[in-house]
Amino acid sequence: MSKYPEAASDEDMRPAPEPFPGTRTVRFGIAELSADEERPGGWLLTVNGIAQSYIDLDDPTYLELEYLRYMAYVVDALEPADAALDVLHVGGGGAAFPRYLAAVRPGSRHLIIEADAPLADFVDERLGLRGLPGVDLRIGDGLTEIATLPADSADIVVADAFEGLRIAQGITGADFTAQVARVLRPEGVYLLNLVGTRHHLEDIRAMFPHRVLVDGDVFAGYIGNQVLAVSRAPLPLDALYQRAEQTWPPARVAPETPE
After folding, report:
1. Residues 140, 27: contact at Cβ < 8 Å?
2. Has residue 174 been placed in a domain?
3. Predicted pLDDT of residue 259
4. pLDDT score of 221
5. Would you say residue 31 has pLDDT above 60?
6. Which of 27, 55, 236, 250 is an S-S bond match for 116, by CB 3.0 to 4.6 Å?
7. Phi and psi of 122, rounded to 5°?
């Protein structure tokens, strides 16, 4: 049986909670939810003071965090542009990216694997999570849970799992990468949120010959989060270049040559 939920009907939807600020002790520290005084509907989720998600409840297509915009550039470049997708998210946070995809690609189905149960409960109580259209939530370890999913069942896999400022253990390793390759369809895309430091990506490079890095232009003076997009099929580079060039601040698209 597929692990991805059917798109919810209006009758199936839970009423959205009324958000309010506050803090909660979660698995990896102290989570805090705060309202954006300058943007109605905007809420920032942090853990130990580090931004995890920014949610605009009035406009889910608004992506405040740059790395989510980079991920959106990649997915928006995939044809057909209005096709519903089966998406696996390893790491949930406030579910900003599932909310975005639910808005721009209606009918998509999302499975979120979240290792931090108290954080998921906090988000669900304040911003809504389990009642989002087409979204299923599973609490558990990423490697353990992904191993239970059917082969060739996902169009997109998103790895956005952090413990503080470090990627969750094993995300870039051989075992997890092999599981990602197993669940992805032949033309599927794997998106990883990376911090702008050195990473051991040898196992990913060995499994996925087509790779592109999307990040902020170096003229801005720093490199923060970066997005690595990889696939076994050629990536839509022309469309990706076009989207990145139309943004401000501009994004840099740096493809790697297939081996």
Report:
1. no
2. yes
3. 46
4. 47
5. yes
6. 27
7. -60, -50
- Cβ contact 207:178 at 8 Å: yes
**Residue 4 belongs to a domain:** no
Q: Say if 1 falls within a structural domain.
A: no
pLDDT average, residue stretch 199-218: 86
Boundaries of domain holding 175: 10-256
Asked whether the predicted pLDDT for residue 134 surpasses 80, the reply is yes
pLDDT at 164 over 70: no
Does residue 176 sit within a domain? yes
pLDDT at 17: 80
Q: How many domains does the chain have?
A: 1
Burial class (CB in 10 A: 0-12, 13-18, 19+), 232: middle
pLDDT tens for each residue of 78-123: 999 989 999 999 998 999 999 999 999 999 999 999 999 999 999 9
Report how far apart the first and last C-alpha atoms of the chain are (Å, whole number).
36
Global confidence as pTM? 0.90
Q: Which residues contact 249 (CB under 8 A, 6 or more apart)?
A: 216, 217, 220
Helices then strands, each counted (H, E), the chain: 7, 14
CATH number at residue 245: 3.40.50.150
